[in-house]
Each structure stands twice: as structure tokens, then as C-alpha cells.
Amino acid sequence: MARMLFDRDSTVLHLSLARRHERLARRYQQNVLAAAILAATNGLKTKHELAGDRELDRQSAYDGVLAADGDLDDGFRGLFNSAENYDRDNVGARTLALLFPEGGFGSIIDQPLAQEPSTAEAMATKVEGLEAGHPLAPHAAKLRTLAAGVREALTALDTAVRVQKSAEAEEELAQGVLRRQYEANYLDARKALGRTIAERLFPRARTAGEAPPAAPPA
Description:
There is one protein chain. The protein has helices spanning 11-27, 31-89, 95-99, 106-109, 116-128, 138-193, 195-199. The protein is rod-shaped, with a radius of gyration of 31 Å. By secondary structure, the protein is an all-alpha fold. The chain is built from seven helices and no strands. The two termini are 28 Å apart. Helix 2 (31-89) runs antiparallel to helix 6. The chain has one domain.
């Protein structure tokens, strides 16, 4: 019995069975069936490759988020270290306590990433509130730039995820097109050739316990 395609089947299996059917159809000079399934196969192959590319884009965007997060964390560390050194050189300044009242930056870099840009901008405002010409002043602009980088990276990731999901949906639609053409080819073959010959145009479903066919010689 011919093995039909189901929506639970992977794209790889869809393409594998469709290509085998195409080759078998051409073997028996059923070129109309072969051409019909080839068109649907190529359509799914294209959508599958596009979905794969969009997955790579999503991974790249995620890497961008991790990098931007690490850069902003380094910005907090840099300010902390600079404030600590300033207080050491200027006894009584208490700049570190003003900027980091909790005594460290661990709670800042451990918070949800989406909150870190706002924290960085609030920290930049504190730095800008120090006296004019303060040695820590350059950290304010750096924190704002790094915060903007995190927001841009998160936006890029959100866009990449939405585009990826859209590509996956298009791939599923292309799977459906191929399944319907595969079934139509089977029915057309049965009508035109009879069951015995029609079955030869399609990969056969294995019965329980049956071993897969041997691989062709190299």
C-alpha cells in the first residue's frame, strides 16, 4: 500500500516521498504526474530553505541581544570601578554610595534585560548630576549609548522572531499543497492505470516489523 503524507510528517519526509514518487512516475512514463508533483515539491523546498534562513537570522539577532547585554553590563561595571577608584582618591566623596546605594552592581545586571536600559539611563542621570567636569561624566553618555544598543537589539530580535514564524507558517502551507497534490496524483493514477500499476508509482508503507529497503549500491 502506498504511503500517504500526513500533516504530522516533517518537511524532510514530505520532500523525500515526493521526490521518490516523481522518479517512479517518470520510470513508468507518467510525466504529467511527475511534473505536477515536481512543482509542489519545488514550492515546499523553497519555503523550507527560506524558513531555515529566517531561523539563522533569529539566531543572529539573539546573539546580538547577548552581545548588547554584555556590553551594557560592562558599562555598569566600568562606572562602578571608576566610582570606587574616585572615592579612594577623594576621601569623603561617597560617589559610589550615591550611584550604587546597594553597594554593588549585581542586582542591576541580574534584572530582566528589558529593564536594564531604563536603569542605565537613570544611572546616567545621576552621573550627570555630579559637579561640572567630574571625572565620571563620560560614563553618562556611554551608558545612554549602550542602553540604546540593547533596545535596538531587542527590537531586532522581536522582528526576527515574527519573520521566522511567518516563514514557518508559509512552509506549513506549502506542505499542505504538496500533500494535496500527492493525494491527487494517487487518485489520478488509480483511475488511469488501475491499482496495481498506480501503487508502483508511490513509496510503499512498511508493515509493522518490516525492515526498510536496502540502500542502493554506491
